[in-house]
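Is S-adenosylmethionine placement plausible here? Inputs below.
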Amino acid sequence: MGRRFNKKKNAGSRKKEQRDPNGSYVEIVKENAQMEEYYKAQNLMSDEEWPLFWENLKVTLPTTFRITGTRSHAAEIRDTVKNAFVPHLTNISVDGVISAPPRPLEWYPDDFGWHFEVPRTMLKKSPEYAKFHQFLVAETEVGNISRQEAVSMIPPLLLDVQPHHWVMDMCAAPGSKTAQIIEMVHANEQPKVVPSGLVLANDVEYRRAHMLIHQTKRLQSPCLLVTNNDAAMIPNLKLAPNKDGKSVPFEFDRVLADVPCSGDATLRKNPMIWSRWTHGGAMGLHQTQVHILQRGAQMLKVGGRIVYSTCSFNPMENEAVVAEMLNRAGGALELVDVSEELPKLKRRPGLSSWKVFTKDGKMVETFEDLPENANGRFLPSMWAPKNVDSLNLDRCLRIYPHLQDTGGFFVAVLKKKESFVPNPTWRAGNEAASEEKTEEVTESKGEATESKGEEAAAPEGEESAATTGDKHKLDSAAQEDESAEKAKKPRMSRSERYGNVGPKEEPFLFLGSEHNDVKLISGFYGLEKEFPTDQFLVRSESERSKAVYFVSEAVKCILKSEDIDRLKVVNTGVRTFIRQDSNTPASCLFRVHSEGIAMMRQFCSNARVVPVQMDIMTILLQSPYPKISEFPEEVQAELEALPTGCCLFEFDPALEKDKDRPNPRWEGQGITGFVKDKMIFPVWKAQVSFNMLLNKQERKSLAMRLGVEYVDAPHVITKKDASGDTPMAEVDAEVDAEEAEGTEGTEGTEGTEGTEGTEGTEGTEGAEED
Ligand SMILES: C[S@@+](CC[C@H](N)C(=O)[O-])C[C@H]1O[C@@H](n2cnc3c(N)ncnc32)[C@H](O)[C@@H]1O
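Reply from A.M.:
I modeled the complex. Tokens:
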């Protein structure tokens, strides 16, 4: 019997080598006396518990992942992990070390969240783990598994999203939580019904908004709208009437404000924070966080829920923000008691008292005690308000790493009881006159790890708190200082503040049911009457636009708003049809895109659908452009009779004779019946040959799931097909390029890269959450 794998041994070493953002190796010392003193002063926990908490922060985070997708499909993957892999990963010993097998996160519903913890040597030296790893990587590539930090899965679960909800994810990139929300909107999907819910996912950084698009693409949701606005200034829009002629307001049933934060609760994942943490980190973020939460609360429907979350332990970014919001709402918002929700999630209550320190580490009891020359950027809202005991801040959730071997997190769930006009000057009436004191605005951008807009995010009608005169009762001397400061420092442009603003977006143009292309498509694929053909759009003014997208009715109401120009929409719609230049005479040159096929199948007549068996699947997966003569004789006549153009091949594993055969790919693990779901994919019939219209990754995944040996098929991407048609992938690539124009780095989104390691988060900026 070997020894158990010792977490502390693995990562608890105080010194570790890491690459800094410039790629050079630096030694990380997992200590920070300032930080330790600061958090000890916050009384987060008892003295006995403190060492457990503190030491645990030095231990590398285990890997966690979420099984994604529709329920039946996710259940299939979960059962495979549970029944086929876990039993073989128990008591595996490498170099005398035994590691615990993967296990479900006890609080995640239906065992769709998983935790596993193996050193890399284990993955390399144990064939069982190598197989599991291979499986995880392959399933991650096709989007059935998503690497996501356990704690990052909590806010969407507490949002309690229903399929009909309109949800706004205000700070959404890179998009792990957005993906979870989209799945919730699509839960309980009914055939032939496009969900009435909506997910508006926003991020102020253009480049990150594109990471978000990349991350959510696999979900193929017509209900998703990606925007690139400052969350504190999401505009009011007058929406176009819906199908019933009703005007719906631009407001949301659920709002997630997963705000930019100092990120010190991600220390286990981002050890660089040990050396970077300073008292100033949270200071520059507090105000932005209040503004974002306030805008979210304004856009929330009465009765709706808003979840506020950070990956910071700092009360200045957490309870102080929530308390300020509750007071600004004057009783219209309340904290929800979620102690009965996710009962197995271990949590600690929010704080009702906390301490504020100056940048040079001096504790200041109250705002009034702040010395004139205090170093830092202070607002009265950073201290606990006088009415703190009436706010139920204990209903907030503090997640500490040592409780369940996770990262740290803060979550507050608020409910809107009635509409309100936020009152940023509430203190003047409710607290003993507390004059705001400004301070030198010396915030360095680098200190606030993910402060993308600390000074700017004043919501409409409210100036930046630290720059406001009468509203916040700045004394005149302070105002003068402020003006002088402003005069010295020209207002930053949007691109200076948030990075590349991106090119001007192409318009979203609805084709309308009477458009010739829509009529052609409807006739050729036999679209049923109930299909909303007025929800197709294109993104090019050209007569012959290449890609046709489909959006839900809710998205259409927004895009058709008369003030849509105020919202910077960067992406929406499922790519459904592609115009294929072809020499093959076909009555419709629009092919179904694999992204839109599952949805379109529900509404297409059977005329273009061909049921196929395993032998045909194998031929299509293994031969380039198979000719009709290469298929089994008994199906040749049927294939010959198919009119040219795009058709949908449907494979139903339940109809296969040997449906329970072990999948050769996982042989030895004893996996049987690996594939249960029907598969549908587009195929182009040229005059004498067929071509599966799937990209390399999709083919690879299909081959794996069927247990067919994968044959790399470069022809799919590069070669002209037998009839001289423009290769499908070339057209796809053109459309991709059009969509992604001006974006760099949409690949490599964290969380999509297999399950190896936990390092490599973009820029190692503390708050880079996944
Ligand atoms: C903690 S991360 C969000 C993580 C994300 N919710 C997820 O689960 O993948 C914070 C995000 O807020 C964005 N951000 C910062 N300031 C913002 C602002 N004023 N408005 C909107 N987004 C902002 C950052 O670009 C960053 O992507």
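Short version: The pocket of S-adenosylmethionine is lined by residues 152, 170-177, 202-205, 208, 230-232, 258, 260, 288, 292, 450, 452-453, 457, 767, 769-770 (CB under 6 Å).
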